[in-house]
Records
---
Amino acid sequence: MMMHPLSPFRYTAIGDSITAGAGAFYIYGYAHQYRNLIEKDLKTRVTFRNLAKSGWTSQELLQALRNDPAFFKAIQTADIITCSIGGNDLLQVGRVYEKAKMKKAGKIALQNFQRNFLSIDQTIKNIKKSSTPYSIRYIELYNPLPEFPLAQQLVKKLNQILHKAADSHTKIAPVYAAFLHHENKLLFIDGLHPNYNGHRLIAETIRKLDDKP
């Protein structure tokens, strides 16, 4: 359980279009909804920054963390950080239509994602190493194409990479299982992004992590 802060709680959200709120009413996505849940649980004001960019891959997020002073400051001062990343890395695989080449592209995408993601995680933790207690919450990918075996394999393998970051500060929200077999109710009409209910479920899935020791 998060301890009640003595000063306003600071929350920074980073990542791609899911963190940006794509698919939700008025872009009121999981990050905004999670901010409200923190305020409700801690009964305190939450200072919130959402630095997500639609379309970003893991490489673009890594570059921002390394080079953008706004990202450095927002991470440095945050009590909790949430991050969704990886969906666009895998979407690039979908642009390859030949089956054999698609498998090869998927393997390369996972290798690139692992290198970038582990660097993202280490960069965040290097920024936070002299900070007071903090929490990081990475968000598993759900599978918007459950009928395709290759999509299932790639999403599961990407989520396994996310779990490599788990430690005393870091937990991974089990969004894949939360969405499984309910995709038709939780995805926006584009078939890729969560709808409002999907974003709500992501926020609640992160919140459950805060109740565990």
---
Amino acid sequence: MPELPEVETTLRGLEPHLLGQRIMDAVIRTPHLRWAIPRQLPIILRGQTIRRLHRRAKYLLIGCDSGTLILHLGMSGSLRMLPVGTPAEHHEHFDLVLANGMLMRLRDPRRFGAVLWHGGDPALHPLLAKLGLEPLEHEFDGEHLYRATRTRSAAIKLVIMDHHLVVGVGNIYANEALFRAGIRPQLAASKLSKPRCARLVQTIRETLTEAIALGGSSLRDFVGSDGEPGYFQQHYWVYGRAGESCRACGTAIKQIKQGQRSSFYCAVCQK
């Protein structure tokens, strides 16, 4: 599933192609994704200019004259810039057609993505209104994490993956950040000291920033807006490496299940 670094990579790739462009049309080939694409969307979008692109959690927000196009890549989605007239292939469900002769195309084999429209403040949309802090912004710091975990007996990995607390820390990056912080994924969140909370916030930021710089992780179907895969998976410390030697100490990496997701850790490096 594309996580925050993959969505941010996509955003940065799309921005120079979309910002300031006038929309000629929208083409809906498959209306039933995770939620139905609004039937009137082509009428709404024709003639509007793209004024702003930004990301909220794993959502891409394309701000137009009278509202915001809200996109989610689901489990297998990707967005590509292509010349107008490029034939659509299987699983390519939606086009945003621009006046400059280019189009943005959504490919989503599993159809868990979303193309939605919101006419008001996008922060008030039901999908966005209750989201937590962005992990790369200053508001998310060690003090915030420390306060938020004092009464949380759940495992720290599950807590940092809770999008009501902090958004976009998916399974891959939670595993990697916890290794860098020297914290076992199953440790109760309330047992973290202030210094360890501060260290974990730091490693979450470092992990996500490095992943963005490397174009995210290409697992299964993800490619960036230029069609290129991400390369962060070549730098994993623990994720997907069960039974392999820890790159730091040589101990075999362990794998457990937490919340129906796999967790990977080093029993020596992480306490």
---
Amino acid sequence: MPLEPRQLLRAMFDAAVAAAQPALCVPANLPQPSGNLIVIGAGKASAAMAQAVEEHWTGPLKGLVVTRYGYSVPCQRIEIAEAAHPVPDAAGLKAAERIMELARAAGPDDTILCLISGGGSALLPLPLDGISLEDKQAVNRALLASGATITEMNTVRRHLSAIKGGRLAAAAYPARLLTLLISDVPSDNPADIASGPTVGDATTCADALAIIARYGIDLPANVRAVLGRSDAESIKPGDPRLAKAETRIIAAPQMALEAAAEVARGEGLPVHILGDAIEGEARDVGKVMAGIAAQVAGRYQPFAPPCVLLSGGETTVTVRGKGRGGRNVEFLLSLAIALGGRPGVWALAGDTDGVDGLEEIAGAIVTPTTLERARKAGIAPRDALANNDGHGFFGALGDAVVTGPTLTNVNDFRAILIEANEG
């Protein structure tokens, strides 16, 4: 029996998440067993990655990884710490200090396996001298609300950190260092995944200051002073301390989209993947996608319904209202308004880590009746969008998508289902 639209959209999302599970992608990328293995890492998937290492590693093993509160899984030989995300806390600071100690203590005959996934930036808050944790928290909050892209945010973060921007790799030298990455960033740039703690960084303090100026972020005077110091520069590509460091991307957004596409094709639907690295203001991307969907819905050949449009990437939200933000629900609310209740068009958008913005909600679903049901409930869609309250809007309609911790993170997932034309 064919899946109903809601079921199909959720099945595609679940397939995207399942394709990026550490249990599938970690084992084939482990180093050859030889000597001591020291495991370190950070991110929303890092605990599940550590568990996969334990299940497939037969030699000596120890280590520490830090993950988001609620994302821990049982491990016997690798310690799992939990900390706050997206705004860092003292638990993350303590974990980052201990991870740096493990890296520095490794010898030339040791192998360090670094497990990195999205969320690692907030989970490794080790400030440079002259910057407090409170400073890092304030800057992070300002960046999250500014509308800056993930690349821009991570450029700033790298230059305020004593562990990001290749500094963890420098501390590990001369041990062999293998980093396994689950990518949650557009274009899969390793320097942007958790702000690149084990890879060289070509950006500069001047770049960070330019981003701060571009978005009008009010930096504390001591933070601005640090960005003027030479020791705030990150580790650059070609640095000799990176000579024994290797990086592998083991899961990425495109893989997740392909897995979702197979679900739709199994239902007999053509699939068009529009891109895995789409950025921009979430509400603007929603308008563009609505235009594409409307064009497809009105055609018969050759790019015609029924079909599915898939995309990924990481949009941004400039928070101006009093709502809770969330780039996926903001995208969907804008999409729904632009579609105007068009028949036969459904959509789901969600963060593959299960958390959209600051909410323990992955995303939501748009149906052809979304706007009609909202108006009957006395909810004004445009007011909700102006207030950045997509979570409140879809929650009131019962259309939120809640997964709980998914233990992975390959960025945002968007699916638009366009049913067959009638007549």
---
Amino acid sequence: MIDHDHRDITDLRRTGPLSRIGALSLRHLYLLRGSWPRLLELIYWPTVQMILWGLITQFLMTQSLWVQQAGGALIAGVLLWDVLFRGQLGFTLMFLEEMWSRNLGHLFVSPIRPIEIVITFMLMSLIRTLIGVGGASIIAIILYHYSIFDMGPALIAFFFGLIVMSWALGMLVTAMILRFGLGAESLAWFLVFALAPVSGVYYPISVLPDWLQTLAFGLPSAHVFEGMRAVLIDHVVRWDLLRHVLVLDAVYLIIGGAIFLFSIRIARQRGLLHQVGE
């Protein structure tokens, strides 16, 4: 056995550098071919960036005075968008930390219940988001003399409207990771950005095609950013939009929670909690 292993190592050393590079490249090509999230990620970022900034450009070309009238709408949009992104990522990262440390199986055989795990992840997501977005808000005050806190109590409604949506998305992403393994972990970073073009972060929903506007208003985030612009531009609080956010968040949270808890039950039945690889 030792002689056989020694012979394999010797043969490997005798191969040329191109052969070794080709072998390692082939290994990663097979890994890429066998993981649809990785293939999706290759075309995802360029496509989303092209759509997002194309819509921004189209809007600003027709509304040249909008940025001046809106004041810090773009900065506020960036900060509030980060609430959605950081909230979802914070929730999912808690789950991924358990997978990376190979503690997932131990976690689910402990006395802690799945609903308690969900609440813990939500709490940590909230803390991480407050730290990240809070720090960015202070930097915006120092560098750009803009304070998002000038929106007053409406900011609290916007914040919680987005953080609750982020939890629902976080549960959906973790359910997919449970189903497909760590090969789907990149979804934690890029899935939420698919919603950016139809959330109206930097431009009104009216810029979108009519058929896409219907889809956009099915998202809590679209109502939040429309409400944000109403506060900054018209100096009014759109309570109708906030009611829509409340209803949609409840629906998303119920659906996300149901999918997450169902995926845990299936993972337990199929023994997937110990399969943390691809």
